[in-house]
Amino acid sequence: MGAPELKFSTSRIDDALARGARGAGIAREDAMLLMEEAALGDLLEAAARLRDAGRGRIVSYSRKVFIPLTHLCRDYCGYCTFRSDPKPGHAPYMTPAEVLAVAEAGVRAGCKEALFSLGDQPERIFPEAREFLTRHGYETTLDYLAAMTLLVLEKTGLLPHANPGVMGADDLARLRQTNVSLGLMLESTSTRLRHKGAAHWRAPDKAPALRLCTIEEAGRQRIAFTTGILIGIGETLAERVDSLFAIRSLHQAYGHIQEVLIQPFRAKADTRMANGDEPSVADLQRTLAVARLIFGGGVNIQSPPNLVSDDYPLLLAAGINDWGGISPVTRDFINPEAAWPQIPTLAARARESGYELRERLAVYPEFANAYFIAPELRVALARHCGNDLYARESA
Ligand code: SF4
Fold first, then answer.
1. What does the pLDDT average to over 30-50?
2. 158 and 176 in contact (C-beta within 8 Å)?
3. What total number of domains does the chain contain?
4. In a domain, 9, yes or no
Protein backbone atom coordinates (compact mmCIF):
# COMPACT_ATOMS: atom_id res chain seq x y z
CA MET A 1 0.00 0.00 0.00
CA GLY A 2 2.88 2.42 0.86
CA ALA A 3 5.02 1.84 -2.26
CA PRO A 4 3.09 3.85 -4.91
CA GLU A 5 2.87 6.82 -2.55
CA LEU A 6 6.66 6.72 -2.02
CA LYS A 7 7.25 6.53 -5.76
CA PHE A 8 4.99 9.53 -6.32
CA SER A 9 6.79 11.51 -3.65
CA THR A 10 10.21 10.48 -4.98
CA SER A 11 9.37 11.66 -8.45
CA ARG A 12 8.12 15.00 -7.10
CA ILE A 13 11.43 15.35 -5.28
CA ASP A 14 13.38 14.47 -8.42
CA ASP A 15 11.39 17.05 -10.36
CA ALA A 16 12.08 19.70 -7.72
CA LEU A 17 15.80 18.84 -7.77
CA ALA A 18 15.80 19.03 -11.56
CA ARG A 19 14.17 22.47 -11.45
CA GLY A 20 16.78 23.55 -8.90
CA ALA A 21 19.59 22.25 -11.10
CA ARG A 22 18.54 24.64 -13.88
CA GLY A 23 19.87 27.41 -11.67
CA ALA A 24 17.06 29.92 -11.97
CA GLY A 25 15.79 29.36 -8.44
CA ILE A 26 12.96 27.21 -7.18
CA ALA A 27 9.46 27.98 -5.94
CA ARG A 28 8.52 27.92 -2.27
CA GLU A 29 6.62 24.67 -2.68
CA ASP A 30 9.75 22.95 -4.07
CA ALA A 31 11.89 24.42 -1.33
CA MET A 32 9.56 23.08 1.38
CA LEU A 33 9.41 19.66 -0.23
CA LEU A 34 13.20 19.44 -0.43
CA MET A 35 13.67 20.78 3.07
CA GLU A 36 11.30 18.21 4.55
CA GLU A 37 11.63 15.13 2.37
CA ALA A 38 14.64 15.00 0.03
CA ALA A 39 17.40 12.52 0.76
CA LEU A 40 20.29 14.59 2.09
CA GLY A 41 22.82 13.05 -0.32
CA ASP A 42 20.74 13.96 -3.40
CA LEU A 43 20.15 17.46 -2.14
CA LEU A 44 23.83 18.06 -1.44
CA GLU A 45 24.84 16.74 -4.82
CA ALA A 46 22.42 19.06 -6.63
CA ALA A 47 23.51 22.08 -4.58
CA ALA A 48 27.23 21.40 -4.98
CA ARG A 49 26.85 20.91 -8.72
CA LEU A 50 24.95 24.18 -9.02
CA ARG A 51 27.59 26.04 -7.00
CA ASP A 52 30.36 24.61 -9.20
CA ALA A 53 28.51 25.72 -12.33
CA GLY A 54 27.81 29.21 -10.99
CA ARG A 55 30.89 30.04 -8.96
CA GLY A 56 33.55 27.59 -10.09
CA ARG A 57 35.66 25.60 -7.66
CA ILE A 58 36.64 28.62 -5.61
CA VAL A 59 35.84 29.21 -1.97
CA SER A 60 36.55 32.71 -0.73
CA TYR A 61 37.17 34.45 2.57
CA SER A 62 37.96 37.96 3.70
CA ARG A 63 40.98 38.72 5.83
CA LYS A 64 39.51 41.03 8.43
CA VAL A 65 40.14 42.68 11.71
CA PHE A 66 37.17 42.81 14.06
CA ILE A 67 36.39 46.16 15.72
CA PRO A 68 33.69 45.82 18.39
CA LEU A 69 32.91 49.54 18.64
CA THR A 70 30.46 49.00 21.49
CA HIS A 71 28.97 46.00 23.24
CA LEU A 72 26.10 48.09 24.58
CA CYS A 73 22.82 47.23 22.93
CA ARG A 74 19.21 48.10 23.58
CA ASP A 75 18.12 44.57 22.60
CA TYR A 76 18.25 41.40 24.67
CA CYS A 77 18.34 38.53 22.18
CA GLY A 78 18.09 35.19 23.94
CA TYR A 79 21.32 33.74 22.49
CA CYS A 80 23.66 36.72 22.56
CA THR A 81 26.87 37.01 24.57
CA PHE A 82 28.14 40.00 22.59
CA ARG A 83 25.84 42.55 24.16
CA SER A 84 26.18 44.08 27.58
CA ASP A 85 24.63 46.72 29.78
CA PRO A 86 26.91 49.51 30.99
CA LYS A 87 29.31 48.28 33.67
CA PRO A 88 31.18 50.40 36.18
CA GLY A 89 34.83 50.67 35.17
CA HIS A 90 34.10 49.69 31.53
CA ALA A 91 34.10 52.36 28.81
CA PRO A 92 30.86 52.31 26.81
CA TYR A 93 32.59 52.61 23.41
CA MET A 94 36.06 52.07 22.03
CA THR A 95 37.82 55.41 21.79
CA PRO A 96 39.18 56.63 18.44
CA ALA A 97 42.70 55.76 19.60
CA GLU A 98 41.64 52.20 20.48
CA VAL A 99 39.87 51.81 17.15
CA LEU A 100 42.99 52.92 15.31
CA ALA A 101 45.26 50.66 17.33
CA VAL A 102 43.20 47.56 16.46
CA ALA A 103 42.97 48.61 12.80
CA GLU A 104 46.73 49.15 12.60
CA ALA A 105 47.34 45.69 14.08
CA GLY A 106 45.10 44.41 11.30
CA VAL A 107 47.16 46.19 8.65
CA ARG A 108 50.33 44.64 10.05
CA ALA A 109 48.71 41.19 9.80
CA GLY A 110 47.78 41.74 6.15
CA CYS A 111 44.05 42.38 6.71
CA LYS A 112 42.10 44.35 4.13
CA GLU A 113 38.71 44.54 5.88
CA ALA A 114 37.79 46.41 9.05
CA LEU A 115 34.62 44.76 10.32
CA PHE A 116 32.76 47.03 12.71
CA SER A 117 30.29 45.12 14.87
CA LEU A 118 28.22 46.78 17.51
CA GLY A 119 25.04 46.70 19.50
CA ASP A 120 21.90 48.39 18.28
CA GLN A 121 21.04 51.99 19.35
CA PRO A 122 22.28 51.81 22.96
CA GLU A 123 21.90 55.57 23.36
CA ARG A 124 18.13 55.13 23.35
CA ILE A 125 18.16 53.44 26.75
CA PHE A 126 21.55 54.02 28.39
CA PRO A 127 22.56 57.47 29.74
CA GLU A 128 26.18 56.24 29.77
CA ALA A 129 26.08 55.85 25.99
CA ARG A 130 24.50 59.30 25.51
CA GLU A 131 27.06 60.88 27.79
CA PHE A 132 30.01 59.37 25.86
CA LEU A 133 28.56 60.39 22.51
CA THR A 134 27.81 63.97 23.62
CA ARG A 135 31.28 64.32 25.11
CA HIS A 136 32.81 63.28 21.78
CA GLY A 137 30.47 65.50 19.71
CA TYR A 138 28.05 62.90 18.37
CA GLU A 139 24.32 62.43 18.70
CA THR A 140 23.92 58.75 17.88
CA THR A 141 25.98 55.57 17.77
CA LEU A 142 25.63 55.56 14.01
CA ASP A 143 27.10 59.11 13.85
CA TYR A 144 30.08 57.87 15.82
CA LEU A 145 30.34 54.78 13.63
CA ALA A 146 30.42 56.95 10.49
CA ALA A 147 33.29 58.97 11.97
CA MET A 148 35.22 55.86 13.05
CA THR A 149 34.85 54.13 9.68
CA LEU A 150 36.14 57.32 8.04
CA LEU A 151 39.05 57.46 10.49
CA VAL A 152 40.07 53.87 9.73
CA LEU A 153 39.67 54.35 6.00
CA GLU A 154 41.75 57.52 5.95
CA LYS A 155 44.46 56.50 8.40
CA THR A 156 44.95 52.85 7.52
CA GLY A 157 43.40 52.26 4.08
CA LEU A 158 41.50 49.23 5.43
CA LEU A 159 38.10 48.81 3.78
CA PRO A 160 35.32 49.22 6.35
CA HIS A 161 32.26 46.97 6.47
CA ALA A 162 29.85 47.77 9.31
CA ASN A 163 27.15 45.65 10.87
CA PRO A 164 25.46 48.16 13.15
CA GLY A 165 21.88 46.90 13.35
CA VAL A 166 18.83 48.65 11.95
CA MET A 167 19.67 51.72 9.84
CA GLY A 168 17.47 54.50 8.44
CA ALA A 169 17.81 56.03 4.97
CA ASP A 170 20.04 58.89 6.19
CA ASP A 171 22.30 56.49 8.12
CA LEU A 172 22.70 54.29 5.07
CA ALA A 173 23.48 57.27 2.85
CA ARG A 174 26.20 58.45 5.21
CA LEU A 175 27.72 55.01 5.85
CA ARG A 176 27.78 54.30 2.11
CA GLN A 177 30.52 56.92 1.81
CA THR A 178 32.88 55.13 4.19
CA ASN A 179 31.91 51.45 3.86
CA VAL A 180 32.46 49.33 0.77
CA SER A 181 29.51 47.21 1.89
CA LEU A 182 27.17 47.01 4.87
CA GLY A 183 25.42 44.18 6.66
CA LEU A 184 22.35 43.36 8.68
CA MET A 185 21.28 39.81 9.39
CA LEU A 186 17.59 39.35 8.73
CA GLU A 187 17.81 36.29 11.04
CA SER A 188 14.15 35.37 10.61
CA THR A 189 10.90 36.78 9.32
CA SER A 190 9.06 34.99 12.12
CA THR A 191 7.24 37.47 14.35
CA ARG A 192 6.55 34.60 16.78
CA LEU A 193 10.18 34.82 17.88
CA ARG A 194 9.41 38.18 19.48
CA HIS A 195 6.90 36.65 21.90
CA LYS A 196 7.66 36.48 25.59
CA GLY A 197 10.56 34.15 26.33
CA ALA A 198 11.41 33.49 22.65
CA ALA A 199 14.71 34.32 20.96
CA HIS A 200 13.79 37.89 20.02
CA TRP A 201 11.77 38.78 23.08
CA ARG A 202 12.84 42.23 24.37
CA ALA A 203 14.60 42.92 21.09
CA PRO A 204 12.70 45.73 19.36
CA ASP A 205 15.26 45.92 16.55
CA LYS A 206 14.59 42.29 15.63
CA ALA A 207 11.13 43.15 14.26
CA PRO A 208 11.35 41.53 10.82
CA ALA A 209 9.55 44.42 9.09
CA LEU A 210 12.15 46.91 10.36
CA ARG A 211 15.02 44.76 9.15
CA LEU A 212 13.45 44.17 5.76
CA CYS A 213 13.00 47.96 5.45
CA THR A 214 16.72 48.53 6.08
CA ILE A 215 17.72 45.86 3.57
CA GLU A 216 15.34 47.29 0.97
CA GLU A 217 16.55 50.84 1.49
CA ALA A 218 20.14 49.62 1.06
CA GLY A 219 19.04 48.24 -2.30
CA ARG A 220 17.55 51.59 -3.31
CA GLN A 221 20.81 53.27 -2.35
CA ARG A 222 22.97 50.79 -4.33
CA ILE A 223 24.80 49.41 -1.32
CA ALA A 224 26.36 45.97 -1.63
CA PHE A 225 24.70 44.21 1.26
CA THR A 226 25.33 41.17 3.43
CA THR A 227 22.38 39.51 5.10
CA GLY A 228 21.21 36.07 6.04
CA ILE A 229 19.42 33.87 8.51
CA LEU A 230 20.18 32.38 11.89
CA ILE A 231 18.87 28.84 12.14
CA GLY A 232 17.78 26.91 15.21
CA ILE A 233 16.42 29.84 17.24
CA GLY A 234 12.90 28.46 17.46
CA GLU A 235 11.76 29.04 13.90
CA THR A 236 9.87 26.36 11.97
CA LEU A 237 11.24 24.98 8.70
CA ALA A 238 8.53 26.93 6.86
CA GLU A 239 9.61 30.15 8.57
CA ARG A 240 13.20 29.39 7.65
CA VAL A 241 12.24 28.98 4.02
CA ASP A 242 10.08 32.14 4.14
CA SER A 243 13.05 34.12 5.44
CA LEU A 244 15.19 32.95 2.52
CA PHE A 245 12.43 33.91 0.10
CA ALA A 246 12.11 37.37 1.66
CA ILE A 247 15.83 37.92 1.00
CA ARG A 248 15.51 36.56 -2.51
CA SER A 249 12.67 38.91 -3.43
CA LEU A 250 14.67 41.94 -2.25
CA HIS A 251 17.64 40.73 -4.26
CA GLN A 252 15.45 40.23 -7.31
CA ALA A 253 14.21 43.82 -6.93
CA TYR A 254 17.57 45.54 -6.34
CA GLY A 255 20.37 43.05 -7.15
CA HIS A 256 22.34 44.20 -4.11
CA ILE A 257 22.63 41.13 -1.87
CA GLN A 258 26.31 40.34 -2.18
CA GLU A 259 26.09 37.30 0.06
CA VAL A 260 23.56 35.25 1.95
CA LEU A 261 24.92 34.10 5.27
CA ILE A 262 23.49 31.03 6.97
CA GLN A 263 24.56 30.71 10.53
CA PRO A 264 23.67 28.02 13.06
CA PHE A 265 22.54 28.93 16.57
CA ARG A 266 25.09 28.04 19.22
CA ALA A 267 24.00 27.69 22.83
CA LYS A 268 26.11 29.88 25.06
CA ALA A 269 26.40 29.86 28.82
CA ASP A 270 24.80 32.77 30.65
CA THR A 271 22.14 33.38 28.01
CA ARG A 272 18.39 32.69 28.09
CA MET A 273 18.93 29.99 25.46
CA ALA A 274 21.89 28.29 27.17
CA ASN A 275 20.03 24.98 27.12
CA GLY A 276 18.59 25.32 23.63
CA ASP A 277 19.12 22.57 21.05
CA GLU A 278 21.74 23.43 18.48
CA PRO A 279 21.05 22.52 14.86
CA SER A 280 23.02 19.49 13.70
CA VAL A 281 25.57 19.72 10.90
CA ALA A 282 23.11 17.76 8.73
CA ASP A 283 20.38 20.33 9.43
CA LEU A 284 22.77 23.13 8.52
CA GLN A 285 23.82 21.29 5.36
CA ARG A 286 20.20 20.77 4.33
CA THR A 287 19.40 24.45 4.82
CA LEU A 288 22.50 25.54 2.90
CA ALA A 289 21.69 23.22 0.03
CA VAL A 290 18.06 24.37 -0.19
CA ALA A 291 19.26 27.98 -0.05
CA ARG A 292 21.62 27.29 -2.96
CA LEU A 293 18.72 25.92 -4.99
CA ILE A 294 16.49 28.89 -4.03
CA PHE A 295 19.10 31.49 -5.00
CA GLY A 296 20.65 29.71 -7.97
CA GLY A 297 24.30 29.15 -8.81
CA GLY A 298 25.53 32.73 -9.00
CA VAL A 299 24.68 34.10 -5.54
CA ASN A 300 27.35 33.98 -2.84
CA ILE A 301 26.34 31.72 0.02
CA GLN A 302 28.39 31.83 3.16
CA SER A 303 28.62 29.87 6.36
CA PRO A 304 31.37 30.41 8.91
CA PRO A 305 33.84 27.56 9.40
CA ASN A 306 34.37 28.14 13.12
CA LEU A 307 30.85 27.14 14.20
CA VAL A 308 31.02 23.50 13.12
CA SER A 309 34.42 22.62 14.65
CA ASP A 310 36.49 20.47 12.31
CA ASP A 311 33.53 19.51 10.13
CA TYR A 312 33.63 22.67 8.03
CA PRO A 313 34.49 20.95 4.71
CA LEU A 314 31.01 19.40 5.02
CA LEU A 315 29.62 22.86 4.38
CA LEU A 316 31.48 23.02 1.07
CA ALA A 317 29.69 19.83 0.13
CA ALA A 318 26.38 21.66 0.71
CA GLY A 319 26.99 24.33 -1.93
CA ILE A 320 28.53 27.30 -0.11
CA ASN A 321 31.26 29.33 -1.79
CA ASP A 322 32.44 31.57 1.03
CA TRP A 323 33.69 31.24 4.59
CA GLY A 324 33.15 34.90 5.53
CA GLY A 325 35.64 37.00 7.43
CA ILE A 326 38.57 35.32 9.11
CA SER A 327 40.73 37.31 11.46
CA PRO A 328 44.38 36.57 12.02
CA VAL A 329 44.37 39.26 14.76
CA THR A 330 41.17 39.31 16.80
CA ARG A 331 38.87 36.60 18.09
CA ASP A 332 35.29 36.13 16.95
CA PHE A 333 33.58 38.48 19.39
CA ILE A 334 30.13 37.18 18.45
CA ASN A 335 31.12 33.54 19.08
CA PRO A 336 34.11 33.92 21.41
CA GLU A 337 34.14 30.21 22.24
CA ALA A 338 34.74 29.23 18.60
CA ALA A 339 38.25 29.90 17.32
CA TRP A 340 38.72 30.60 13.62
CA PRO A 341 40.81 28.03 11.79
CA GLN A 342 44.20 29.24 10.64
CA ILE A 343 44.10 30.51 7.07
CA PRO A 344 46.74 27.99 5.79
CA THR A 345 44.69 25.17 7.36
CA LEU A 346 41.56 26.46 5.67
CA ALA A 347 43.43 26.54 2.34
CA ALA A 348 44.72 22.99 2.82
CA ARG A 349 41.28 21.62 3.74
CA ALA A 350 39.72 23.39 0.73
CA ARG A 351 42.40 21.87 -1.52
CA GLU A 352 41.71 18.39 -0.13
CA SER A 353 38.06 18.88 -1.14
CA GLY A 354 39.08 20.05 -4.62
CA TYR A 355 38.62 23.81 -4.08
CA GLU A 356 40.93 26.77 -4.24
CA LEU A 357 40.82 29.21 -1.33
CA ARG A 358 40.83 32.82 -2.54
CA GLU A 359 40.99 35.99 -0.52
CA ARG A 360 38.26 38.43 -1.45
CA LEU A 361 37.65 41.93 -0.18
CA ALA A 362 34.80 43.18 1.99
CA VAL A 363 33.00 43.75 -1.29
CA TYR A 364 32.73 40.76 -3.63
CA PRO A 365 34.31 41.04 -7.11
CA GLU A 366 30.99 41.41 -8.92
CA PHE A 367 29.99 44.32 -6.65
CA ALA A 368 33.33 46.16 -6.80
CA ASN A 369 32.20 48.66 -9.38
CA ALA A 370 30.98 52.24 -9.73
CA TYR A 371 27.33 51.25 -9.35
CA PHE A 372 27.84 50.05 -5.79
CA ILE A 373 30.98 51.83 -4.62
CA ALA A 374 30.90 55.49 -3.58
CA PRO A 375 33.47 57.74 -5.29
CA GLU A 376 35.12 58.42 -1.90
CA LEU A 377 36.10 54.75 -1.61
CA ARG A 378 37.41 53.98 -5.05
CA VAL A 379 41.08 54.81 -4.50
CA ALA A 380 41.29 52.70 -1.34
CA LEU A 381 39.47 49.86 -3.05
CA ALA A 382 41.73 49.97 -6.11
CA ARG A 383 44.76 49.68 -3.84
CA HIS A 384 43.53 46.28 -2.57
CA CYS A 385 41.98 44.88 -5.75
CA GLY A 386 43.79 42.47 -8.00
CA ASN A 387 43.00 42.26 -11.72
CA ASP A 388 40.10 39.86 -11.15
CA LEU A 389 38.75 42.05 -8.31
CA TYR A 390 39.61 39.51 -5.63
CA ALA A 391 42.19 40.76 -3.10
CA ARG A 392 45.56 41.66 -4.49
CA GLU A 393 48.06 39.02 -3.39
CA SER A 394 49.75 40.05 -0.13
CA ALA A 395 53.51 40.02 0.13
S1 SF4 B 1 22.32 39.82 18.72
FE2 SF4 B 1 22.74 41.96 18.21
S3 SF4 B 1 20.79 43.01 18.56
FE4 SF4 B 1 20.67 41.04 19.65
S5 SF4 B 1 21.38 41.51 21.72
FE6 SF4 B 1 23.16 40.81 20.57
S7 SF4 B 1 24.10 42.67 19.84
FE8 SF4 B 1 22.03 43.20 20.44
1. 97
2. no
3. 1
4. no
